[in-house]
Amino acid sequence: MGLANIHHLIAEIRATLIAQFQAADVWFDAPEHVLGSRPRPGSWTAAEILEHITLTNHFLLILIRKGALKSLQLLENQNLEEVATHYVFHQEKLEEVGTLGSFIWTRPEHMEPTGAPGAAVRARMKEQLTECLDWLDQLSQGAGILYKTTMTVNDLGKIDVYEYLYFLAMHIRRHLMQLEGCLAK
Q1: Distance, CA of 24 to CA of 18 (rounded, Å)
Q2: Are 50 and 125 in contact (CB under 8 A)?
Q3: What's the domain count of the chain?
């Protein structure tokens, strides 16, 4: 791929994160009857979906932080230019994460909504976007390709920090599709 292409990839990830977070943020301004209604019995409300997004982001950001710090440490001992020549960003597989119903995955219990107030959820979501963009800034030279950890969702296997950030954006996109179902009621 090369470092020049990785710099383009980072710009694309940044734009994708901003777009997905902004699209989710709009939902906080929906009328209360939209935020609180269930499209079907047993489903989540729009407010619960938004909280779930932030809960999932919280746990993804733990992995992103760890991976980013390890990547920056590895930068001291790695030839980034050489590693970049063999780099593959698994965009197609990651994009499946952003499509509602593309695969079955049961979320862990700690990612289920608890009923947090919408203002707190919105503030948390804004903080999460800022953190994602800060990590992209810190990894702007390409170091995010140097460290990988396993992602079991959709059998992704070992993914790097940039792929985790894109995964996070695709997870939001997936739930934006689910949020549209709250309007269809």
Answers
A1: 10
A2: yes
A3: 1
With vertex at residue 20, the alpha carbon angle to CA 121 and CA 100, rounded to the nearest 5 degrees, is 95
Rounded distance between C-alpha atoms, residue 50 and residue 143, angstroms: 31
Q: CATH code at 24?
A: 1.20.120
Of the candidates 62, 89, 94, the residue with the CA atom closest to the CA atom of residue 144:
89
**How does DSSP assign 11-56, residue by residue?**
HHHHHHHHHHHHHHHHGGGS-HHHHH--SSTTPPPHHHHHHHHHHH
Asked whether the beta carbons of 30 and 46 are under 8 A apart, the reply is yes
* DSSP state for residue 99 in the 8-state scheme: S
Overall pTM > 0.85:
yes
Which domain does 68 fall in, by range? 3-183
Pairing of strands 157-160, 148-151: antiparallel
pLDDT tens digits for 90-129? 999 999 998 887 766 666 677 789 899 999 999 999 999 9
User: Cα dist. 110→9, 29, 53, 58, 113 in Å?
Assistant: 31, 26, 12, 11, 8
